[in-house]
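ok so for the tutorial part 2 we go from a plain amino acid sequence to predicted C-alpha coordinates. step 1 is just haveing the sequence, like this:
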Amino acid sequence: MRKIFIVILSIILISSAAFATTTKSATTAEEHAIAISSGTDSYDDIIVTKTGDGVDSNGSEYYDWYGRNAAILASDGTLTISSADITSDATYGSAVFAYGGTINISDSKITTSKKNSGGIMVTNGGTITANDLTITTAAGSSAAIRSDKGGGTITATGGTYTANGSGSPAVYSTAAITVSDATLNSGISQGVVIEGGNSVTLKNTAVNANHTNKNGQDSTYQAVLIYQSGSGDASEGSSAFTMTGGSITNAQGDIFCVTNTTCTISLTGVTITNNDSTGNFLRAEGQNWGSNGGTVTLNASGQTISGNIIVASDSSLTMTLKDSSSFTGAINPDSASSGSANVSAAAGNVNVTVEEGSTLTLTGNSYITSLTAANSSNINYGDYSLTVGSTTYNASNPYGGSSDTTDQKTDDTTNNENQDTTNNILGSSGSGCNVASYLEMAMLICLGLFLKRK
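step 2 — the prediction. this is what the C-alpha coordinates look like for a chain of 454 residues:
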Protein backbone atom coordinates (compact mmCIF):
# COMPACT_ATOMS: atom_id res chain seq x y z
CA MET A 1 0.00 0.00 0.00
CA ARG A 2 2.86 2.29 0.88
CA LYS A 3 4.49 1.61 -2.49
CA ILE A 4 1.28 2.50 -4.32
CA PHE A 5 1.06 5.75 -2.39
CA ILE A 6 4.65 6.63 -3.28
CA VAL A 7 4.00 5.92 -6.96
CA ILE A 8 0.87 8.09 -6.99
CA LEU A 9 2.69 10.92 -5.20
CA SER A 10 5.56 10.73 -7.67
CA ILE A 11 3.13 10.97 -10.59
CA ILE A 12 1.48 14.02 -9.02
CA LEU A 13 4.82 15.73 -8.45
CA ILE A 14 6.02 14.98 -11.97
CA SER A 15 2.75 16.23 -13.44
CA SER A 16 2.90 19.41 -11.38
CA ALA A 17 6.42 20.07 -12.54
CA ALA A 18 5.41 19.52 -16.15
CA PHE A 19 2.61 22.07 -15.93
CA ALA A 20 4.35 24.58 -13.67
CA THR A 21 4.31 28.23 -14.78
CA THR A 22 7.63 29.39 -16.21
CA THR A 23 9.06 32.67 -14.93
CA LYS A 24 11.44 34.88 -16.93
CA SER A 25 12.83 38.12 -15.55
CA ALA A 26 15.25 40.93 -16.38
CA THR A 27 16.46 43.31 -13.69
CA THR A 28 19.07 45.60 -15.26
CA ALA A 29 19.12 48.19 -18.05
CA GLU A 30 19.27 46.78 -21.59
CA GLU A 31 18.55 43.28 -20.34
CA HIS A 32 15.68 41.31 -21.88
CA ALA A 33 13.67 38.62 -20.15
CA ILE A 34 13.23 36.89 -23.51
CA ALA A 35 15.10 37.67 -26.73
CA ILE A 36 15.30 35.99 -30.12
CA SER A 37 17.52 36.93 -33.06
CA SER A 38 17.01 33.91 -35.34
CA GLY A 39 15.04 30.69 -35.69
CA THR A 40 11.87 30.04 -33.69
CA ASP A 41 10.98 29.81 -30.03
CA SER A 42 7.75 29.49 -28.04
CA TYR A 43 6.49 29.98 -24.49
CA ASP A 44 3.19 29.02 -22.89
CA ASP A 45 1.83 29.81 -19.42
CA ILE A 46 4.66 32.16 -18.56
CA ILE A 47 5.27 35.06 -16.18
CA VAL A 48 7.62 37.79 -17.45
CA THR A 49 8.92 40.69 -15.36
CA LYS A 50 11.14 43.58 -16.38
CA THR A 51 12.88 46.16 -14.18
CA GLY A 52 15.99 48.26 -14.74
CA ASP A 53 15.43 51.75 -16.15
CA GLY A 54 16.93 52.97 -19.38
CA VAL A 55 19.41 55.84 -19.26
CA ASP A 56 17.78 59.18 -20.12
CA SER A 57 21.01 60.66 -21.46
CA ASN A 58 20.98 58.08 -24.27
CA GLY A 59 17.84 59.71 -25.66
CA SER A 60 14.46 58.12 -26.25
CA GLU A 61 15.27 57.08 -29.84
CA TYR A 62 18.07 54.86 -28.53
CA TYR A 63 15.39 52.69 -26.92
CA ASP A 64 12.20 53.46 -28.88
CA TRP A 65 13.69 52.67 -32.27
CA TYR A 66 15.55 49.51 -31.31
CA GLY A 67 13.86 48.03 -28.23
CA ARG A 68 17.10 47.97 -26.27
CA ASN A 69 15.32 47.87 -22.90
CA ALA A 70 12.24 45.86 -23.84
CA ALA A 71 11.04 42.97 -21.72
CA ILE A 72 10.63 40.75 -24.80
CA LEU A 73 12.52 41.45 -28.04
CA ALA A 74 12.48 39.75 -31.44
CA SER A 75 15.17 41.27 -33.64
CA ASP A 76 14.75 38.43 -36.12
CA GLY A 77 13.19 34.98 -36.16
CA THR A 78 9.73 34.08 -34.87
CA LEU A 79 8.57 34.03 -31.27
CA THR A 80 5.25 32.53 -30.14
CA ILE A 81 3.78 33.35 -26.73
CA SER A 82 0.48 32.30 -25.15
CA SER A 83 -1.13 32.62 -21.72
CA ALA A 84 1.50 35.06 -20.49
CA ASP A 85 1.47 37.64 -17.71
CA ILE A 86 3.98 40.34 -18.70
CA THR A 87 4.88 43.24 -16.40
CA SER A 88 7.34 46.03 -17.12
CA ASP A 89 8.35 48.51 -14.42
CA ALA A 90 11.21 50.14 -16.32
CA THR A 91 11.57 53.37 -18.30
CA TYR A 92 11.88 52.70 -22.04
CA GLY A 93 10.73 49.21 -21.17
CA SER A 94 8.17 48.24 -23.79
CA ALA A 95 6.67 44.87 -23.00
CA VAL A 96 6.61 43.07 -26.37
CA PHE A 97 8.86 44.53 -29.09
CA ALA A 98 9.38 43.28 -32.67
CA TYR A 99 12.41 45.00 -34.18
CA GLY A 100 12.36 43.33 -37.58
CA GLY A 101 11.35 39.98 -36.10
CA THR A 102 7.94 38.30 -35.78
CA ILE A 103 5.96 37.78 -32.58
CA ASN A 104 2.69 35.87 -32.24
CA ILE A 105 1.06 36.45 -28.87
CA SER A 106 -2.33 35.34 -27.55
CA ASP A 107 -4.49 35.13 -24.42
CA SER A 108 -2.11 37.28 -22.41
CA LYS A 109 -2.05 40.21 -19.99
CA ILE A 110 0.44 43.07 -20.38
CA THR A 111 1.07 45.90 -17.90
CA THR A 112 3.64 48.71 -18.11
CA SER A 113 4.08 51.49 -15.57
CA LYS A 114 6.82 53.87 -16.70
CA LYS A 115 7.45 56.27 -19.61
CA ASN A 116 8.16 55.14 -23.18
CA SER A 117 6.88 51.67 -22.44
CA GLY A 118 4.35 50.51 -25.00
CA GLY A 119 2.32 47.35 -24.71
CA ILE A 120 3.05 45.76 -28.08
CA MET A 121 5.40 47.60 -30.43
CA VAL A 122 6.99 47.27 -33.89
CA THR A 123 9.86 49.05 -35.62
CA ASN A 124 12.19 48.28 -38.51
CA GLY A 125 9.53 46.26 -40.35
CA GLY A 126 8.66 43.99 -37.44
CA THR A 127 5.43 41.98 -37.28
CA ILE A 128 3.14 41.29 -34.32
CA THR A 129 -0.03 39.21 -34.45
CA ALA A 130 -2.04 39.54 -31.24
CA ASN A 131 -5.18 37.74 -30.13
CA ASP A 132 -7.27 38.45 -27.03
CA LEU A 133 -4.80 40.59 -25.11
CA THR A 134 -5.50 42.81 -22.13
CA ILE A 135 -3.00 45.68 -22.17
CA THR A 136 -2.77 48.57 -19.71
CA THR A 137 -0.07 51.25 -19.80
CA ALA A 138 0.26 54.02 -17.22
CA ALA A 139 2.86 56.59 -18.28
CA GLY A 140 3.74 59.01 -21.07
CA SER A 141 4.64 57.99 -24.62
CA SER A 142 3.32 54.51 -23.92
CA ALA A 143 0.61 53.63 -26.41
CA ALA A 144 -0.98 50.26 -25.81
CA ILE A 145 -0.43 49.44 -29.50
CA ARG A 146 2.66 51.32 -30.60
CA SER A 147 5.11 51.67 -33.47
CA ASP A 148 8.10 53.85 -34.28
CA LYS A 149 10.78 54.37 -36.89
CA GLY A 150 10.74 51.86 -39.72
CA GLY A 151 7.21 50.77 -38.92
CA GLY A 152 5.98 47.27 -39.55
CA THR A 153 2.68 45.43 -39.20
CA ILE A 154 0.43 44.85 -36.19
CA THR A 155 -2.75 42.79 -36.43
CA ALA A 156 -4.77 42.63 -33.22
CA THR A 157 -8.00 40.69 -32.80
CA GLY A 158 -10.11 40.79 -29.66
CA GLY A 159 -9.02 42.13 -26.33
CA THR A 160 -8.90 45.47 -24.51
CA TYR A 161 -6.13 48.03 -25.02
CA THR A 162 -5.90 50.92 -22.53
CA ALA A 163 -3.31 53.71 -22.36
CA ASN A 164 -3.47 56.20 -19.50
CA GLY A 165 -0.49 58.54 -19.90
CA SER A 166 0.15 61.85 -21.63
CA GLY A 167 1.01 61.38 -25.28
CA SER A 168 -0.21 57.81 -24.96
CA PRO A 169 -3.09 57.05 -27.31
CA ALA A 170 -4.52 53.57 -27.40
CA VAL A 171 -2.98 53.22 -30.88
CA TYR A 172 0.01 55.15 -32.25
CA SER A 173 0.79 54.22 -35.83
CA THR A 174 3.90 54.72 -37.92
CA ALA A 175 3.07 51.33 -39.40
CA ALA A 176 0.17 49.32 -40.85
CA ILE A 177 -2.06 48.53 -37.89
CA THR A 178 -5.33 46.59 -38.00
CA VAL A 179 -7.56 46.05 -34.97
CA SER A 180 -10.73 43.94 -35.03
CA ASP A 181 -13.43 43.12 -32.46
CA ALA A 182 -11.59 44.95 -29.70
CA THR A 183 -11.90 47.89 -27.31
CA LEU A 184 -9.48 50.84 -27.39
CA ASN A 185 -9.38 53.22 -24.40
CA SER A 186 -7.35 56.36 -23.84
CA GLY A 187 -7.13 57.97 -20.41
CA ILE A 188 -5.96 61.53 -21.23
CA SER A 189 -4.74 61.30 -24.85
CA GLN A 190 -6.21 60.69 -28.27
CA GLY A 191 -7.79 57.36 -29.04
CA VAL A 192 -5.82 56.90 -32.27
CA VAL A 193 -2.84 58.77 -33.77
CA ILE A 194 -1.43 58.20 -37.27
CA GLU A 195 1.85 59.82 -38.25
CA GLY A 196 3.05 60.16 -41.84
CA GLY A 197 2.30 57.77 -44.67
CA ASN A 198 0.90 55.00 -42.49
CA SER A 199 -2.46 53.47 -41.65
CA VAL A 200 -4.94 52.30 -39.05
CA THR A 201 -7.82 49.97 -39.97
CA LEU A 202 -10.51 49.29 -37.37
CA LYS A 203 -13.23 46.65 -37.72
CA ASN A 204 -16.09 46.33 -35.24
CA THR A 205 -13.96 48.03 -32.62
CA ALA A 206 -14.95 50.52 -29.92
CA VAL A 207 -12.75 53.61 -29.53
CA ASN A 208 -13.21 55.55 -26.28
CA ALA A 209 -11.14 58.73 -26.40
CA ASN A 210 -10.66 61.07 -23.45
CA HIS A 211 -8.14 63.60 -24.76
CA THR A 212 -7.93 66.07 -21.90
CA ASN A 213 -4.18 66.67 -21.78
CA LYS A 214 -2.31 68.34 -24.64
CA ASN A 215 1.05 66.77 -25.38
CA GLY A 216 4.01 68.23 -27.24
CA GLN A 217 2.75 70.59 -29.94
CA ASP A 218 -0.94 69.70 -29.75
CA SER A 219 -3.13 72.75 -30.44
CA THR A 220 -6.56 71.22 -30.02
CA TYR A 221 -8.25 68.14 -28.54
CA GLN A 222 -9.49 65.25 -30.69
CA ALA A 223 -10.33 61.55 -30.75
CA VAL A 224 -8.24 60.84 -33.85
CA LEU A 225 -5.15 62.83 -34.87
CA ILE A 226 -3.63 62.38 -38.33
CA TYR A 227 -0.45 64.37 -38.79
CA GLN A 228 3.18 64.58 -39.83
CA SER A 229 5.75 65.61 -37.26
CA GLY A 230 9.28 66.70 -37.96
CA SER A 231 10.84 64.04 -35.72
CA GLY A 232 11.87 61.69 -38.51
CA ASP A 233 9.97 58.81 -36.91
CA ALA A 234 7.67 58.38 -39.91
CA SER A 235 8.23 58.86 -43.64
CA GLU A 236 6.07 61.43 -45.36
CA GLY A 237 3.14 60.25 -47.46
CA SER A 238 -0.61 59.83 -47.48
CA SER A 239 -2.15 58.41 -44.31
CA ALA A 240 -5.24 56.20 -44.20
CA PHE A 241 -7.83 55.77 -41.46
CA THR A 242 -10.42 53.12 -42.32
CA MET A 243 -13.20 52.07 -39.96
CA THR A 244 -16.07 49.66 -40.50
CA GLY A 245 -18.67 49.14 -37.79
CA GLY A 246 -17.82 49.73 -34.18
CA SER A 247 -17.93 53.11 -32.48
CA ILE A 248 -16.02 56.27 -31.62
CA THR A 249 -16.96 58.01 -28.38
CA ASN A 250 -15.19 61.30 -27.72
CA ALA A 251 -15.03 63.20 -24.43
CA GLN A 252 -13.51 66.51 -25.55
CA GLY A 253 -12.75 68.40 -28.75
CA ASP A 254 -13.12 67.18 -32.32
CA ILE A 255 -13.58 63.71 -33.70
CA PHE A 256 -10.90 64.06 -36.40
CA CYS A 257 -8.02 66.50 -36.76
CA VAL A 258 -5.74 66.49 -39.83
CA THR A 259 -2.69 68.72 -39.95
CA ASN A 260 0.56 68.93 -41.95
CA THR A 261 -0.26 65.84 -44.03
CA THR A 262 -2.51 64.25 -46.66
CA CYS A 263 -4.94 61.50 -45.72
CA THR A 264 -7.99 59.45 -46.65
CA ILE A 265 -10.66 58.80 -44.03
CA SER A 266 -13.13 56.02 -44.91
CA LEU A 267 -16.12 55.35 -42.65
CA THR A 268 -18.76 52.66 -43.02
CA GLY A 269 -21.52 52.18 -40.47
CA VAL A 270 -19.59 53.63 -37.51
CA THR A 271 -21.52 54.94 -34.50
CA ILE A 272 -19.94 58.29 -33.65
CA THR A 273 -20.71 60.18 -30.43
CA ASN A 274 -19.10 63.47 -29.47
CA ASN A 275 -19.90 64.37 -25.87
CA ASP A 276 -18.38 67.82 -26.39
CA SER A 277 -21.14 70.05 -27.76
CA THR A 278 -18.55 72.56 -29.01
CA GLY A 279 -16.43 69.93 -30.78
CA ASN A 280 -16.35 69.51 -34.56
CA PHE A 281 -16.59 66.37 -36.61
CA LEU A 282 -13.52 67.29 -38.65
CA ARG A 283 -10.86 69.97 -38.40
CA ALA A 284 -8.28 70.36 -41.20
CA GLU A 285 -5.77 73.14 -40.63
CA GLY A 286 -2.14 73.99 -40.05
CA GLN A 287 -1.17 73.76 -36.40
CA ASN A 288 2.13 73.60 -34.56
CA TRP A 289 3.39 70.39 -36.15
CA GLY A 290 4.56 71.97 -39.41
CA SER A 291 3.98 74.63 -42.04
CA ASN A 292 1.18 72.86 -43.94
CA GLY A 293 -2.51 72.32 -43.41
CA GLY A 294 -4.43 69.12 -43.99
CA THR A 295 -5.49 67.63 -47.33
CA VAL A 296 -8.39 65.27 -46.65
CA THR A 297 -10.43 62.82 -48.70
CA LEU A 298 -13.47 61.74 -46.68
CA ASN A 299 -15.53 58.79 -47.93
CA ALA A 300 -18.74 57.97 -46.06
CA SER A 301 -20.71 54.82 -46.95
CA GLY A 302 -23.85 53.97 -45.00
CA GLN A 303 -22.56 56.48 -42.48
CA THR A 304 -24.26 59.01 -40.19
CA ILE A 305 -22.13 62.10 -39.54
CA SER A 306 -23.05 64.88 -37.13
CA GLY A 307 -21.01 67.97 -36.32
CA ASN A 308 -19.35 70.86 -38.08
CA ILE A 309 -16.46 70.65 -40.52
CA ILE A 310 -13.69 73.25 -40.40
CA VAL A 311 -11.33 73.56 -43.38
CA ALA A 312 -8.88 76.44 -43.07
CA SER A 313 -7.42 78.37 -46.00
CA ASP A 314 -4.26 76.24 -45.94
CA SER A 315 -6.25 72.99 -46.22
CA SER A 316 -8.71 71.18 -48.46
CA LEU A 317 -11.46 68.57 -48.29
CA THR A 318 -13.09 66.25 -50.81
CA MET A 319 -16.14 64.63 -49.20
CA THR A 320 -18.38 61.95 -50.73
CA LEU A 321 -21.63 60.77 -49.12
CA LYS A 322 -22.98 57.55 -50.60
CA ASP A 323 -25.07 54.47 -49.79
CA SER A 324 -27.66 56.35 -47.71
CA SER A 325 -25.13 58.37 -45.75
CA SER A 326 -26.13 61.58 -44.01
CA PHE A 327 -24.25 64.65 -42.87
CA THR A 328 -25.87 67.02 -40.36
CA GLY A 329 -23.89 70.13 -39.52
CA ALA A 330 -22.26 73.16 -41.10
CA ILE A 331 -19.19 73.43 -43.28
CA ASN A 332 -17.00 76.42 -42.46
CA PRO A 333 -19.93 78.17 -40.73
CA ASP A 334 -19.98 81.90 -40.02
CA SER A 335 -18.86 81.32 -36.43
CA ALA A 336 -16.00 78.97 -37.31
CA SER A 337 -12.47 79.99 -36.52
CA SER A 338 -9.00 78.61 -37.04
CA GLY A 339 -6.83 80.16 -34.42
CA SER A 340 -7.91 83.80 -34.50
CA ALA A 341 -9.03 83.84 -38.15
CA ASN A 342 -12.55 83.39 -39.43
CA VAL A 343 -12.30 80.50 -41.89
CA SER A 344 -15.64 80.92 -43.68
CA ALA A 345 -14.44 84.05 -45.43
CA ALA A 346 -11.10 82.55 -46.53
CA ALA A 347 -11.66 78.82 -46.36
CA GLY A 348 -9.75 76.15 -48.19
CA ASN A 349 -11.25 74.22 -51.09
CA VAL A 350 -14.18 72.01 -50.10
CA ASN A 351 -15.66 69.74 -52.77
CA VAL A 352 -18.79 67.83 -51.80
CA THR A 353 -20.56 64.98 -53.60
CA VAL A 354 -23.95 63.75 -52.34
CA GLU A 355 -25.02 60.62 -54.19
CA GLU A 356 -28.60 59.45 -54.69
CA GLY A 357 -30.17 58.41 -51.38
CA SER A 358 -27.75 60.39 -49.22
CA THR A 359 -28.43 63.77 -47.61
CA LEU A 360 -26.71 66.97 -46.49
CA THR A 361 -28.60 68.78 -43.70
CA LEU A 362 -27.43 72.25 -42.67
CA THR A 363 -27.32 73.53 -39.11
CA GLY A 364 -25.59 76.78 -40.06
CA ASN A 365 -24.64 78.87 -43.07
CA SER A 366 -22.02 76.93 -45.00
CA TYR A 367 -19.36 77.70 -47.60
CA ILE A 368 -17.90 75.22 -50.08
CA THR A 369 -16.11 75.30 -53.42
CA SER A 370 -18.12 72.81 -55.49
CA LEU A 371 -21.19 70.62 -55.09
CA THR A 372 -22.37 67.56 -56.97
CA ALA A 373 -25.76 66.28 -55.80
CA ALA A 374 -28.18 63.88 -57.46
CA ASN A 375 -31.10 66.28 -57.05
CA SER A 376 -32.40 69.15 -54.93
CA SER A 377 -33.94 66.82 -52.34
CA ASN A 378 -30.43 65.75 -51.26
CA ILE A 379 -29.93 69.13 -49.56
CA ASN A 380 -31.94 70.15 -46.49
CA TYR A 381 -31.43 73.86 -45.84
CA GLY A 382 -33.71 74.65 -42.94
CA ASP A 383 -33.16 78.34 -42.17
CA TYR A 384 -29.62 78.36 -43.53
CA SER A 385 -27.80 78.93 -46.80
CA LEU A 386 -25.19 76.99 -48.73
CA THR A 387 -22.76 79.09 -50.73
CA VAL A 388 -21.11 77.15 -53.54
CA GLY A 389 -18.35 79.22 -55.06
CA SER A 390 -20.06 82.56 -55.67
CA THR A 391 -23.64 81.23 -55.74
CA THR A 392 -25.80 81.01 -52.64
CA TYR A 393 -28.62 78.48 -52.31
CA ASN A 394 -31.34 78.20 -49.68
CA ALA A 395 -34.83 76.77 -49.24
CA SER A 396 -36.30 79.49 -51.48
CA ASN A 397 -33.57 79.13 -54.09
CA PRO A 398 -32.49 75.47 -53.90
CA TYR A 399 -29.65 73.86 -55.76
CA GLY A 400 -31.11 72.15 -58.82
CA GLY A 401 -29.12 68.94 -58.64
CA SER A 402 -26.54 67.55 -61.01
CA SER A 403 -29.11 65.29 -62.69
CA ASP A 404 -31.22 68.29 -63.61
CA THR A 405 -28.18 69.96 -65.13
CA THR A 406 -27.31 66.81 -67.06
CA ASP A 407 -30.88 66.48 -68.36
CA GLN A 408 -30.84 70.10 -69.49
CA LYS A 409 -27.64 69.53 -71.41
CA THR A 410 -29.17 66.45 -73.05
CA ASP A 411 -32.32 68.36 -74.02
CA ASP A 412 -30.27 71.23 -75.41
CA THR A 413 -28.20 68.81 -77.46
CA THR A 414 -31.31 67.12 -78.83
CA ASN A 415 -32.92 70.47 -79.65
CA ASN A 416 -29.79 71.65 -81.41
CA GLU A 417 -29.64 68.47 -83.49
CA ASN A 418 -33.33 68.84 -84.46
CA GLN A 419 -32.77 72.48 -85.32
CA ASP A 420 -29.80 71.58 -87.51
CA THR A 421 -31.89 69.00 -89.38
CA THR A 422 -34.71 71.51 -89.89
CA ASN A 423 -32.29 74.12 -91.13
CA ASN A 424 -30.90 71.67 -93.65
CA ILE A 425 -34.40 71.15 -94.98
CA LEU A 426 -35.61 74.72 -94.77
CA GLY A 427 -32.41 76.47 -95.69
CA SER A 428 -30.42 78.88 -93.67
CA SER A 429 -33.26 81.40 -93.51
CA GLY A 430 -35.69 78.82 -92.13
CA SER A 431 -38.53 80.48 -94.07
CA GLY A 432 -39.60 77.47 -96.12
CA CYS A 433 -39.36 79.25 -99.49
CA ASN A 434 -36.67 76.94 -100.83
CA VAL A 435 -38.92 73.90 -100.30
CA ALA A 436 -41.73 75.52 -102.32
CA SER A 437 -39.34 76.29 -105.16
CA TYR A 438 -38.15 72.70 -105.27
CA LEU A 439 -41.73 71.41 -105.41
CA GLU A 440 -42.69 73.81 -108.20
CA MET A 441 -39.66 72.82 -110.29
CA ALA A 442 -40.42 69.12 -109.81
CA MET A 443 -44.02 69.60 -110.95
CA LEU A 444 -42.92 71.44 -114.11
CA ILE A 445 -40.45 68.69 -114.99
CA CYS A 446 -43.12 66.02 -114.53
CA LEU A 447 -45.59 68.00 -116.72
CA GLY A 448 -42.97 68.40 -119.45
CA LEU A 449 -42.29 64.68 -119.52
CA PHE A 450 -46.00 63.93 -119.66
CA LEU A 451 -46.61 66.25 -122.67
CA LYS A 452 -43.57 64.85 -124.47
CA ARG A 453 -44.99 61.32 -124.23
CA LYS A 454 -48.26 62.53 -125.59
